[in-house]
Input
Amino acid sequence: MNNENSWQKKILYSLLTLMLATMVFLGYNAYTQAKAYEKTTSALVSQMSAKKLAEFQLKELAETFSLGFYENDKKKNLEQLRILGEEHKKKSQKYTLYFILLLLGILGSYFLLSLRAFTFFGSLASLVTLVFGLITPIMMVTIHKEVEYLGDVVLSFESKGVIGSISKLFENGDAVVAIVILLFSVLIPTVKILSLLFVSVFMKSKFAHGIVKFFKMIGKWSMVDVFVVATFLVYLTVDKGDVSRAEVEVGLYFFLAYVIVSMLVSLSADRMLHRLKG
Output
């Protein structure tokens, strides 16, 4: 009977390891597609300045009066960029969805694993999710204005992830804001996950209870980083008197998923240590 249980555990642990590896693969593909979408959108937006739109309108008139002898190739190129951008966007969303489904599968292993094993695998899944949440773009903001005869003119375009926004804040001299985001979005989450991994491996350590108690105490601040990042990404780009168009990107879903999973893993670690103490 013990041998049978041992084999079942090995199979389950192997399956969870495979799921984690697949999450890394899917997360990387979601990241690359999100960056490709960002690059394509940037190229598209660069063609929507006042000067470029004026050239476009002139070519449109030339095409109209040429009776088909002249073709506005810029119009075709813009359409190709739009189609390519939509493809990258859909792929990034698809890979993110598959990633989240696997993450839910790992969370579902709570009912099959010991609290210690769940805390270990949950912490690894949370760490993977955090990494992609930090490096993948989370919001795209475009500042535009309607100009007579030209149409919708883009004044500025910004697409940043958490790391990119911190870097830009430092460059712009907003060190206080940058440090707040760095603290709540990078340093504390990273230390928290590494600490939970430590607790799952060395659960009998005298430091284990103190670690979990500390992160339960600061757990109420878990959503601050998401709010701060989203707010200041808009702050970085919006100017008064202009119209902004914001688009949430897949990085924010990774980050939100990390917040939820890390909270569940913290509860698991706390319950594990409570049982050990009892």
